[in-house]
Amino acid sequence: MRNNWKKHQLFDLYDVRSGMGNKSRKDFHPTKYENKMIMFKDVFYNSKLPNKLETTVNLIGTELERFNVLKDDVFLTSSSETSNELAMSSVAMKDYNNTVFTGFTKRLRPKTDLTYIGFMRYWFRSFEFRRVIDSSVSMTTRANLNNSILSNVTITLPSINEQKAIANILSSFDDKIEVNNKINENLENLAQVLYKHWFVDFEFPDENGNPYKSSGGIMVESELGLIPFGWKVEKLGKSSISNLVKSGIKEFIDKKIYLATADVTNTTITNHNTYINMGNKPSRANMQPKQNTVWFAKMKASRKLIRVSDESQSLIDNYIFSTGFAGIECTKSLNYVWSFVSSNEFDELKNSLATGTTQEAINNGVINNMNFLVPSKNILTKFENVVREFYNKKELNDRENLKLAEMRDLLLPKLMSGEIRLPIEE
User: Fold this and answer.
1) What is the DSSP string of 153-220?
2) Residue 420 belongs to some domain of the structure
3) Nearest 5°: CA angle at 244, between 243 and 247?
4) Cα(345)–Cα(341) distance, rounded to whole angstroms?
5) Residues spanned by the domain of 117
6) pLDDT tens digit string along 278-328?
7) pTM for the whole thing?
8) Which is nearest to 308 in space by CA: 245, 376, 264, 234?
9) Do 196 and 149 share a structural domain?
């Protein structure tokens, strides 16, 4: 099938450099410093590096020059608590000015013109590459990617033109997924704007269609300050519209939970940027989240959230949640509760109540007793009627994304092995 493809050793194609490892916590800040750093998560969760990087870092001397990031660079995660997270890849589709990369990654910089970055984006996420890594890694306390492991990697390449053709096919799926994700992000933002206007600023429409608070609507004292007349302050874990479900499960493969990315009915993570072997399947008993629940990370500063509606249940049938997440059952208004736990106000409240030594988090007792604003029934109904269409559209996009990812993952090994050949002009 690949009679005109040529085999190369990885070190013949790439110079390999480990990332910067001499920084302390004080050298990092979200906005304080001018230079950006590519972190483990940026590589692990993205087959191509994000356009916008979140972490800034203090650099000295020649660090920027030694650890710079240029178009066509490939990055691999190089240290992890599990072998499944090792050697996950992300590629630079452009130059990243004033940017360096963390010591938990390695940079592969091309030293020939034999590779096309769009093709390598998928090759390093292929089962062909994963098989070599999985067979070479040995676990002690952590899994580490060293040059000895990479020396076992051979890469069979078609011509540049065929690489480009293959990359165009595979990237078309990811491009559409990216468009859908952007639409979903905008829909979430619209819902949040409406939530804040109605339930934080109290400018929901009164009986005459005017903004309630600024039109002189009656406000009364409560544990949360002034709230509209007829509204109540209850407890989040045991209110008239919400109940605490419980934490997630404790055990999973390699004692690691893959939240909202792991499909445990088969051996492949179905996140659209992740193609790795997960090994044996855990028991699925009592793992799946209930319908009409929202799940959020208990850890301070973590904003991981999952929404499970009647319509979206099938999208997450095979997902499980770790004990680091709490579930709230929404007995009457899923979208309102979801908007609350998605809001900046909830994030600030959660962070202020978090406790702990090694890792600050909130516990179930705190969640149960969080003050929770419950609006009047008619306002909740109006809110649900408005935002329901937002979430219906989002769930349609999610379903389409799953199908796109499945088609891409079906084609990926066939194109990489040469089982399917594309007509090209050399």
Assistant:
1) -EEEE--HHHHHHHHHHHHHHHHHHHHHHHHHHHHHHHHHHHHHHHHTS---B-TTSSBTTTTT--EE
2) no
3) 160
4) 8
5) 6-157
6) 233 333 333 455 678 888 888 887 777 777 776 554 445 445 566 778 889
7) 0.80
8) 245
9) no
